Amino acid sequence: VGFALNDGTSIAKDASDILLMDNNFASIVQAVKWGRNVYAGVARFLQFQLTINAVAIATAVGGALALQESPLTAVQMLWVNLIMDSLASLSLATDSPTDELLDLKPYRGDEPLISPLLWRNIIGQGVFQLSIMYSLVQYGDVIFNVPNHSVTGGDPSVHYTLVFNIFVMLQLFNQVNARKIYGEEDVMQGVLSNKLFVYILTAELALQALIVQFGGDAFGTRPLNLAQWAACIGFGALGLFVRKALLMLPGGRPTKDELPAVENGFEKKDN
Question: Which residue has the higher pLDDT, 189 or 243?
Answer without folding.
Answer: 243
